[in-house]
Amino acid sequence: MIAVITGDIINSQHADTEVWITRLKNLLESWGSAPQTWEIYRGDEFQFKCNIDDVFWRFLAIKSLIKSQENLDVRIAIGIGEENFSSEKITESNGTAYVNSGRLLNDIKNDGHTVAIKTSNDSLDRDLNILLKWSSKDFDNWTMATSEIIHEMIMNNDITQEDLAKKFTISQSSISQRLKRANYDLIVETNQYFRKKISEL
Prior knowledge:
The protein has 201 residues and is α+β, with helices and mostly antiparallel strands. The protein contains 8 helices and 5 strands. A 5-stranded mixed β-sheet has the order 2-3-1-4-5, with helices on both faces. The longest helix has 18 residues. InterPro entries: Lambda_DNA-bd_dom_sf (IPR010982), SatD (IPR032580).
């Protein structure tokens, strides 16, 4: 089984495309090579495949990267399933992971949510999607400053609050307050819960 993330940038027409697309490309490139592992297409849509264990953390890395730029957000559909056909281009690959992710993105565009998951288990989907709806109330309201710090924490497990304070030239107490406001410890717990539930599929 694999995880496929299909997403689109919210408000992309109101932002400097060169800035967000360069940063998104650099992030996706750090996880795999285009166009087999990821691709950006139709201007502001993208698709990316990864290990099922990593999918929640990858989603948050993308979310925090995009939200660290003014007026931008991202809609993400997570599909878990099989890959029956692997093409040189991810957008031409196929299997239940791709179908689940692609259809789900259309659904969440219509219902106004910013993230959802679809697996082969309806009961698990219900549980995880309720969790995602609640947590997104926080994620969707991250400020640019909070998003920057969350992104650094996700991308570098070893980084300390002192390192972050130096990087962003603010006090360590400010870093601590932002992480508390973002419920970072709870985000880490949620990632562990996601990994556990998905591993049981």
